[in-house]
Amino acid sequence: MKKKVKGIVAFLILAVMLLSFTGCKTNFEIKGLINNFENACNKMDINGILDCITPKVSEKVKMAVGIAEIFTDKSTEELLDSLSEAMLGSGWEGGIDFFKSLEIKVGDIMANGTAASVKTTVRYGTADEKKAKEATFNCVYYTEKWYIESISLD
């Protein structure tokens, strides 16, 4: 009887440990996604930015950027400047400077299967005048990878 109880207790401990490690892996992957997005923004890497965004949105934007580059003489920076409000919504200002100065501090991550909500503090602006806003990154797990689906101001 004691062996049976010890076996059940050992199994339960192992199950709890495995579930804990799965959550840690998810949080690690989501933090990596947000970090990749921040770095791509700082480098003005439009393809890097779009690689972090869900494919159903990024593919359309990539096509639009490609067409815009063919029919206009705008640089990638100018395209990002004009797309910044469309990509991020109203309430964000700064265009190119926003992307280059972006700092994202990840707070609470609430993941549930294939969806996650990430509370962040987003800082941007010049070194002398940094602005900060609370934002939520809504992420989805699709084809074995996490993507940003939307960003909203809190």
Describe this structure in words.
Helices cover 54% and strands 28% of the residues. It is of the alpha+beta class and 154 residues long. Strands 1-2-3-4 form a four-stranded antiparallel sheet. The longest helix is centred in the first third of the chain and has 41 residues, at 2-42. The protein is flat and about 45 Å long.
Topology:
Layout: H1 2-42, H2 46-51, H3 55-71, H4 76-88, H5 96-101, E1 103-112, E2 115-125, E3 130-142, E4 145-153
Outline of this structure?
The chain is α+β, with helices and mostly antiparallel strands and 154 residues long. Helix content is 54%, strand content 28%.
Radius of gyration: 20 Å
How many runs of DSSP E, i.e. beta strands? 4
Strand content: 25-35%
Distance between the termini: 55 Å
Throw out a few tags for this protein.
flat; 5 helices; alpha+beta; 154 residues; single chain
